[in-house]
């Protein structure tokens, strides 16, 4: 890990210090993905079988997971893992229900009722990668909010192993979160199938989930096409930034840095501390703990592009963190809440010594599908709202139109939109006419009665 | 307007009936916009002056609006328009405050506190078009939620008129909604300036607002670049779908259709009704009212690609509407609330005879920046949430980690992420050690005391 001192760096060096590993949208990748998408759109399921043979190296009999496979997966599942899945799902459900948007209705003027109603995105596609290992936790993070939102059709794609099966835990999660169809598909071809539909795979309105460079490129391409599908957010490699003071436990800090570094060679980890001694101790611990990890080689590659940065204060650490806008931010300091208000941008924040980042990956209840690569400046992580649309509704009584119609007419006139103005004034005139007719009627009646 | 009967159409004809006017991302447009963006990135302000001269046909002395211009604009503003702006702003504020996300904190297990906190997107760019007429209402729809969200730096771009000035009402709205800087910039060059920054224009994290094909293409391009900026949503031409039963007033229905048609030649309007007589009456009214409009020629072009469609019931009308997913949906029926639950996809909905779509454009309180072109299937209109990020926060006590740590460790093991597992188990071991030390200490103390 590179050691730097923030206060001796000039602006250019600071920029370099916080630069992410470049994610070039290389032309070759872009074109390959365009080709895969075009082929799936043209030849449908047939293309999917071919791509699975070519890229996932498995010859599939059918791309959709069958009832028998679901049953076999459940039967094969370790009971402790099954229990952990249910436990995590329950906590994810608590937090996601608590943060789900609620309907709203207000009167903005007498007789003017304005509402926000919620509707689930009808057809959603969840992508669960299985590159180096299965990720049942990602299936939970997508399946639970889709279920709470009430999406009508939930499709999940995850690449099959070489034996032609999907991971048992992923299938089990799909089942308990009410996913309607699971397909053994990975990579750009899975994204293409869900965005455009094939004979087997339903066309989806919005796609969710992380993935490798091919998946990410495919998501970008289908989201730029109005005939394609929306996406949750752009994605990049996972990353963590830790702020530690001298009270932090270097063993814990090192473990947190490594839990991010083991994700992949392009993961990035950054430690900020006002304590040189802490930077030294953590560097030593990282080296020691890394040697014991099965994914040590991957972690070492990630660590090569990672940084230990000395800052002059915790306030400066917060400034640097905001500038970086990390996916995960760990505050291993004596008073983490004192720093929280100053944090502008991060995907998810972990406070104090007893909150390792990996509890957020699995079971604290928050979502682990988060903005990376600086996107935390403008994007939020996945939540129930990601699976819903918020529709506004307005209903005016005659009184309401009388109250606000003149304002609309003046603004429409200022914008030289005469038809907009008339849609209001025609109605106001009709109302006046109705009042007039009523008063004539009233007079006639009262004359007859007298 | 084309007359169609939904129930005699086959699937292909139904698709054609609901097809939007094609919005081709023509290669020529794409390349021109790429060129403009590259030039702005390379030559900054200098390029902006040149593009303004070339595209807006105005020679600017400065691109930033000065204090003197703001003051002159306010002084020149018609008091009735000023009052209407304040009235509209107040109603927009009521609704947007009522629908703003709130912080949430829950315990998902004993000692596991999980929160959602809100942070404004720090630097936002608002685009207010001025193609055929000024649009102060769009400035309101973007400025009010940005103000409520508390964005640190709000930049607004709107093209200058040939006299080198911006519209007075737009400047006045910018002032009262707390916009920090206004630039006389339009088109792709305005988007490029806000996405990447120049010496004068601050770099923004997220861009908002409607625009023509150039603006839309530029927004797409900068949003696909991690160095660029996020955007509110993809955009297309404005559109309305009206569902009318025989109780509807054809004069009102025609006025609503025309208020959409006058937006531009590529606007689309659709009327669905189970009553042939209503379709006839509205067709006649549209013709009659259109002739009286100053923008009649534009409306006629839009009407040429619009549709009057006979359906067999209001239920079928809802089905067809959901399939189309209109930006604006007007329910001119006797019992509009009876249809509301069935609506899956729409940007904003208008209920009943006294709710013209144009009140939503200006002053009912809802936002008029809405998903068009079928994007209402997966996107929502602009709201305070569009200007914020929702960050999750978790804080575990030692008790909390004991409660949920084992679950995280089991899931990490299933995913073969050993460093994730150890970040938890190292801490649990440290806790056990602390308990052991404490009990040794307790024993020693009690032995000494006895």
TrEMBL record, chains A, B:
Catalyzed reaction equations: L-histidinol + 2 NAD(+) + H2O = L-histidine + 2 NADH + 3 H(+)
The main enzyme category here is: oxidoreductase
Query: What parts of the sequence cross the membrane?
Result: none
Q: Which GO terms fall under molecular function for this chain's record? A: histidinol dehydrogenase activity; NAD binding; zinc ion binding
Which residues bind substrate per the record? 238, 260, 263, 328, 361, 415, 420
Q: Enumerate the cofactors the protein uses.
A: Zn(2+)
Quick one: a GO cellular component term?
cytosol
Q: How is the cofactor bound?
A: Binds 1 zinc ion per subunit.
Q: Which residues bind Zn(2+)?
A: 260, 263, 361, 420
Q: What is its EC number?
A: 1.1.1.23
Q: What GO terms describe the biological role, i.e. biological process, of this protein?
A: L-histidine biosynthetic process
Q: Pathway it acts in?
A: Amino-acid biosynthesis; L-histidine biosynthesis; L-histidine from 5-phospho-alpha-D-ribose 1-diphosphate: step 9/9
What keywords tag this UniProt record? Amino-acid biosynthesis, Histidine biosynthesis, Metal-binding, NAD, Oxidoreductase, Zinc
CDD domains according to UniProt: Histidinol_dh (cd06572)
Q: Which residues bind NAD(+)?
A: 127, 189, 212
Pfam family, any one: Histidinol_dh
Catalytic site: 327 (proton acceptor), 328 (proton acceptor)
Q: Which family does it belong to?
A: Belongs to the histidinol dehydrogenase family.
Q: Quote the HAMAP family the UniProt record gives.
A: HisD (MF_01024)
The protein's job, in short, is: Catalyzes the sequential NAD-dependent oxidations of L-histidinol to L-histidinaldehyde and then to L-histidine.
This protein is called: Histidinol dehydrogenase
